[in-house]
Design goal:
- The protein is mainly β.
- Helices cover 0% and strands 60% of the residues.
- It is elongated and about 50 Å long.
């Protein structure tokens, strides 16, 4: 019913930048919160940033001042601009979204398949 597809991952040197995008498609009526999470090898998935439909943002302390989350409601897309990247930012990055489908009543959470970000030192 709903698909989330991430793009923009890759390999970058420390201090560089990447921009991730996540587009939601399918039988979408509306989307509330959207967010980015990441999971490094051997670690649990952790919050990176979230954004409400109205644009209110929340960031993990480890990325504040370096990462910026934004969204385009008309395109059902959320972005993550990552600057001043560090080797410890290396992880698989996942987007999620709370989506009400056409004919639905609630906002279950959907996840993308993930995109690899690798930061070399």
């Amino acid at each position: 019913q709903v698909q989330l597809v991430e793009s923009g991952g890759g390999l970058v040197q420390a201090g560089g930048s990447l921009r991730l995008a996540c587009a939601a498609s399918g039988s979408i009526f509306s989307i509330n919160d959207m967010g980015w999470y990441r999971q490094a090898p051997g670690k649990q998935r952790e919050l990176v940033a979230t954004i409400t439909r109205g644009g209110r943002t929340n960031y993990a302390d480890s990325v504040k001042g370096r990462f910026t989350i934004s969204r385009d409601n008309a395109k059902n897309t959320v972005y993550l601009q990552m600057n001043s990247l560090k080797p410890e930012d290396t992880a698989v990055y996942y987007c999620n979204a709370d989506v009400r489908t056409i004919g639905g009543r609630f906002y279950p959470t959907y996840w993308g398949q993930g995109t690899q970000v690798t930061v070399s030192s």
